[in-house]
Write a sequence for this structure.
């Protein structure tokens, strides 16, 4: 596990964007796993800038998003579909047929999960997965106490997650109670992982993810078992990560 501590949110985001750009340059047909939420927003902005100013080429890139709310259609501004097109896909030269996001409106959600998992395999698996982290340590929408061996599945969101994400909706009642999410197993099969965390409110979860026991109660702790994880933090998220010398 590599831990990089950057001065602030912007520096953290630029570092992450550089690493994603490096992946794209080294393997132009990479399969990227993408996250939503507030944390990766500036990283996406930076990738768009690199596309415009430095010709960063997305034309052979495939992307799989981590998750999507159940019951929000693609045009809903709170859907992760909308978010991804608004913040990245509409501004780079990625091909539409290479963009994959779970369909939260699918009639048969179970079949949709199976289909999504197969698509990831058919495309050769994920080369680089970007993750954020929830205050409760979730990654994707894998809430505490879900089995590590889960693949893409339907999850019931925790009250804490519903409350945290209600900031994007006009009222908490509008926040969907369920989502489709890649499972921990799906995430762990990625060849490389970058986890981003910014702000004091993530510091406790970050500390437990890095130093705590590896338990389903803190989903991100499973990353300690992955051979190629980089955690990029800003100073606030790193406030309890003092002793990084003993981390390999
Ligand atoms: O970056 P944020 O908005 O703090 O969200 C953290 C995590 O929570 C989620 O938005 C899900 O609640 C994840 O997609 C994200 O990684």
């Amino acid at each position: 596990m590599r831990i990089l501590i950057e001065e602030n949110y912007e520096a953290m985001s630029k570092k992450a964007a550089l690493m994603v750009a490096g992946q794209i340059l080294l393997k132009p047909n990479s399969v990227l796993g993408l996250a939503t939420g507030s944390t990766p927003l500036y990283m996406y902005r930076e990738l768009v800038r690199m596309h415009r100013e430095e010709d960063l080429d997305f034309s052979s890139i495939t992307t799989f998003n981590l998750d999507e709310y159940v019951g929000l259609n693609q045009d809903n501004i709170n859907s992760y579909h909308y978010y991804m097109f608004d913040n990245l896909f509409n501004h780079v030269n990625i091909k539409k047929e290479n963009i994959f996001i779970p369909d939260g409106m699918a009639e048969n959600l179970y079949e949709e999960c199976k289909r999504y998992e197969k698509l990831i395999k058919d495309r050769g698996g994920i080369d680089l997965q970007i993750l954020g982290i929830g205050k409760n340590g979730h990654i994707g929408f894998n809430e505490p106490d879900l089995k590590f061996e889960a693949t893409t599945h339907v999850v019931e969101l925790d009250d804490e997650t519903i409350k945290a994400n209600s900031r994007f909706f006009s009222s908490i009642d509008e926040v969907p109670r369920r989502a489709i999410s890649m499972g921990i197993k799906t995430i762990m099969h990625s060849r490389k992982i970058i986890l981003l965390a910014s702000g004091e409110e993530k510091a406790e979860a970050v500390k437990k993810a890095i130093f705590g026991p590896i338990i389903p109660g803190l989903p991100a702790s499973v990353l300690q078992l992955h051979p190629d994880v980089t955690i990029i933090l800003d100073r606030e998220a790193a406030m309890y990560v003092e002793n990084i010398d003993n981390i390999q």
Observations:
- Residues 19-39+46-196 form a domain with the Rossmann fold fold (CATH 3.40.50.1360).
- The CA atoms of residues 63 and 93 lie 13 Å apart.
- The pocket of 6-O-phosphono-beta-D-fructofuranose is lined by residues 35-39, 67, 132, 134, 141, 161, 165 (CB under 6 Å).
